[in-house]
Specification:
273 residues; alpha+beta; Uridine Diphospho-n-acetylenolpyruvylglucosamine Reductase, domain 2; Uridine Diphospho-n-acetylenolpyruvylglucosamine Reductase, domain 3; Enolase-like, domain 1; 3 domains; 4-stranded antiparallel β-sheet; 14 strands
Amino acid sequence: MIPGPFTYQRASSVDEALQLAADGGEDAKFLAGGHSLVPLMKLRLAAPDTVIDIGRLAELSYIRDEGSHIAVGALTCHDTVARSGLLESRVPLLANAAGQIGDPQVRHRGTIGGSLAHADPAADLPAVSLALGATMVARGPSGTRQIAAEDFFASLFESALQPGELLTEIRIPKPDGAGWSFQKFTKRAIDWAIVGVAVQGGSVALVNMGSTPIRATAVEQALAAGSDAADAASHAAEGTSAPEDFNGPRAYREHLARVLVRRALEEARSRAR
C-alpha cells in the first residue's frame, strides 16, 4: 500500500530534530533506518502528519567505553553493533544478538535505537536490553532523562518515550564475567523470532512471549534458589501471555520457551568465567 500524505523534514542535528518535533506536535514521528515506521505507514497503521528524518545524525552513531558502562548511540546500525570489538569483548550478548537480526541489508540500515523505540515484543534487542539491565537516555522539551529498560516498554509498540522525545543513547553496564547466551527459533534466519531468549548471568528475558519483552522472573527465582538449568527452564512459561497466530498456538510457544531457556542457560554456564 501507499502511505497517506505527510510532510517530510530532514534534521541536521539533534537540537534541530527536537525543534521540528515540537513544531510538528504529537503527530510528528522520527525516522531512522525506516524498517519499523515505513511498513506501518504503508499499512496505514501509522499516519504521522510530519516525518522527521534523523538517519544522517552522525552525532548519535558511536560505541564508547564510559568506565562503568558502554554507551551506544541510538543511531548505531545493527551491523556496527555486531562487529564492534569493544562490544564483542565487554558485552558479547549484544553484539551476538545484533548479528542475528534480519539479513545484511537490514543490519546495515536498521538502528539499535529504532528497534528499542519501536517496542516490538518480537524484536530481539528489546529483550536483550532487559537481560543486560540497560538504561535508555532520552532528550525532549523538558531536557534529558534516563529510563531503565524494565520501565521503557509500556505495551505493544508503545514505549515510555513522550511526544517530542528522542532516544539518543543506550547505556549498558559492563557484565562481570557471567555467562551469556542468545537463542531464538525462526522459520527462516531472516524472520522475526517465534520465541527467543536472552540470558546474562542470572537475568533471563523472553522474546515474543507477551505484549512487551518480558523478564522470565520465575526462571530467575529458580536460578537464585540453586536450581539447575533443566529445572529452572521448566518455569519459563510462567507469567507469560504468548500470542497465538499462524506460527502456532500458545502452548507451542510455551514449549519453545522452555526448550530455548534450557539451551540458553546451559550455554551461559559453559561461558561463565
